[in-house]
Amino acid sequence: MLKKYLQEKNFHKVIEVAEKGETQDLQYPGLITNWKKYRYTAYKFLSLKEEQQRLAKELLFAGNFEYYQDLKELAKESQGELYTNIKAELKSKKGWNNRIFLRLIEEENDLEEILAFVRDNPRYIENYAEKLVKPFKEDVIEIYKGLIHSAASTSSNRRDYQGVCQIIKRYKKIAGKQKQEEVINELNGLYKKRPAFIDELGKIK
Question: Percentage of residues in the chain with pLDDT exceeding 90?
């Protein structure tokens, strides 16, 4: 029915039907998103900018990153302010969506914000080390080293130890041979009572 109304350019009817659908499907987030997308299309054709902007933001926060580009187009000369506001709003939400937040700061190449995120979530350092190492080399090395020590502290069998060693090998590409040797020496000292771990550390080239 909605497709038919769209083909007929009966956009007000599309909005009406979509709103009814949203009301009846409140317990189904996925269906609500589909209804909203139809309503958004109608707003776009009708050039209802305020409604379009409000709904695009809802859809973005629900996990549909493609609507960020539409928001930027609607913001025109206020794109910087838009980015700052969306970033702050995402961070303020309880249980905020890491995936959308990361897409956002990657899209804007906000290296300082990426670094701040990685500081709070060190497991992501391997995803962003190459991007961050040039402007923030010391920070990246510190976080990466912390990840290695964290992984080592929770390892308990040879497979785990091999996993830690793989991280150390990747660390070398970022920090260099000397820093790699330093962290290996630290681990040798800390875990000398774990012969299997010492054995695996000895295999690192």
Answer: 87
